[in-house]
Amino acid sequence: MRIGIFGAGAMAGALGARWAAAGHELMITGRTAAKARALADGWGARTGGFGEVAEFADVALIAVLHQGMAATLDRIGDALRGKVIIDCNNPVEVGHFTLVTPPGRSMAQEIERATGGHVVKAFNLCHARVWRMDPPVFDGRRLTVPYCGDDPAALDVARRLITDLGCEPLPVGGIRHAHHLEAMAAIVISLLFGGHDPHTVFNLVDRTTVATSVQPASPDRRP
Predict the structure, then answer these.
(1) Could you give the dihedral angle defined by the CA atoms of residues 38, 167, 198 and 20, in that order, rounded to the nearest 10 degrees?
(2) Most distant CA pair in the chain: distance in Å?
(3) Is-annotated flag, keyword Oxidoreductase (predicted)?
(4) Residue 61: which H helix or E strand, with range?
(5) Strands 141-142, 137-138: pairing kind
(6) What are the pLDDT digits (tens) for 37-58?
(7) Closest by alpha carbon to 180, among 144, 154, 146, 142?
(8) Where are the domains of the chain?
(9) Which of 46, 49, 81, 188 has the most C-beta neighbours closer than 10 Å?
């Protein structure tokens, strides 16, 4: 798959490295050309301008701080119209740890409106260090990655990219649910800034997959 990456920060670096290792062809652009070039060199990939990366991509990853999102979308314009776009961003105000988007609206929906692409919200609930794990496993269970979007083909692409990281895909509905994933991320970010380890995650635990080594107490057992 040809993945075009917009942004050259920690998330772009972590996800791009794993996808390159999985055999995908990557091209990256960013506000700082030197950072984009350093990432591309590490992946054996290429850099380009915003338009070049958009034209190259079968699927795009937008990974920028929310403060720079408007400028990024302006530079992309409609070059991603009709294409699959993965949105891993969180419009969270650090300090109050609240969303900066209007109530009930998400950054994912804004990206979809601005670009005309098929947006899937995914990869927004973990620190970049988690995505560098190969694979991300916690207590013997693969990391579950919630994702949402409206376009079936785009959801299929997201599911493959999640699986390529060794994670368990969890579809949670249409793009209207992206707001809830962003709100969950606000909690994670507040925990990280509060001193929790960067590998702190929410992980879905399916009782049928939990080891049975811990047996329920006998009703006859006294404390």
Answers:
(1) -10
(2) 70
(3) yes
(4) strand 59-62
(5) antiparallel
(6) 999 999 999 999 999 999 999 9
(7) 146
(8) 2-202
(9) 188
